[in-house]
Design a protein that fits this description.
Methane Monooxygenase Hydroxylase, Chain G, domain 1; two-stranded antiparallel sheet; about 300 residues; 8 strands; 4-stranded mixed β-sheet; alpha+beta; flat
């Protein structure tokens, strides 16, 4: 990465440190770091012990029912190590939960204690790449849903559930990456986290739409297909607006949302209110992302 060199009044020169390195190495207000010279290279080393975020979960009887959700929350929060105290054997449940997370693993266990740790050593500095990957997964999910619903209809509830879990896994990883980073502008950090959470909710709505097709015998007309494609266009435009920040794109998203609403009114009951309402919810949530885009706009 390129850093700007700043000349000070006393003839000294300074550079700023990458914020992700500062946070990962627990650099506080009065730090001491080691600087060494090697030919044309300047090597900066932190000799201090890096702090690890730790949390403890104590399970009491029925509390183990929500164990997965609690671990997911701590994972997204950016916790590096979780100790779980339980009198019951929860090893099989933890194996299931670990499969839903990137980088987490059970590193030790006894009769009453289990320790989960981030062993992936993930690099969260490439946040934009992670974000782009998650958004593209949601776009492909919607495209695949439309192709299957109006095509061979080969998807099953099990295979659909596996697709949804994969998207949720990456959404959680994105939320974790955002919380592991540090922002000079806290508003942008909060907006980006809300954005990642919203993408997960859109993925859930696509899941419901696809599942509705598996569980029903709804008549699917060309008019209904056009409605879903228009709804997906709104999501595509939201992806474009995130990177372009061009207001013309934002206006097109709002017009697409209104068109989806209007066209849904002409559908017959036989063409399914359920399908239409899912399509409307997806395009409405896509349009709501504009507000977050504008908050993050420089």
């Amino acid at each position: 990465m390129i850093r700007k060199v700043i000349k000070q009044a006393n003839q000294a020169y300074t550079i700023t440190l990458p914020i992700e390195w500062v946070r990962e190495n627990n650099i506080d207000k009065n730090p001491e770091i080691e600087v060494s010279l090697q030919d044309k290279s300047l090597i900066i080393t932190n000799n201090k012990e890096v702090s690890v975020k730790k949390e403890k979960i104590i399970l009491e009887n029925s509390e183990r029912i929500g164990l997965g959700r609690r671990i997911h929350a701590l994972y997204a929060k950016g916790v590096d190590e979780i100790e779980i105290i339980s009198k019951e054997d929860i090893s099989s449940k933890l194996t299931e939960v670990m499969a839903e997370l990137i980088g987490y693993a059970v590193v030790s266990q006894s009769k009453t204690s289990y320790v989960i740790k981030d062993v992936g050593g993930g690099n969260y500095s490439n946040l934009d790449e992670i974000f782009k990957r998650v958004f593209q997964m949601v776009l492909i999910f919607y495209e695949s849903a439309i192709e299957d619903i109006f095509g061979k209809e080969t998807e099953t509830e099990l295979s659909l559930s596996n697709r949804d879990k994969e998207i949720n896994k990456f959404c959680l990883f994105l939320e974790r990456a955002i919380n592991k980073m540090s922002y000079s502008d806290p508003i942008k950090g909060r907006a980006l986290f809300t954005y990642s959470f919203s993408l997960e909710k859109i993925g859930d709505e696509i899941h419901r739409l696809w599942k509705a097709n598996i569980n029903s015998k709804t008549k699917k007309t060309e008019k209904l297909k056009e409605l879903l494609l228009l709804s997906k266009e709104g999501l595509d435009l939201s992806f474009d607006f995130y990177y372009s920040k061009e207001m013309a794109v934002a206006e097109k998203i709002y017009k697409t949302k209104e068109k989806v609403r209007k066209n849904s009114e002409s559908l017959s009951k036989q063409e399914s209110f359920d399908f239409a309402r899912h399509a409307i919810k997806i395009v409405e949530d896509s349009a709501d992302l504009n507000h977050l885009n504008l908050i993050m706009k420089d």
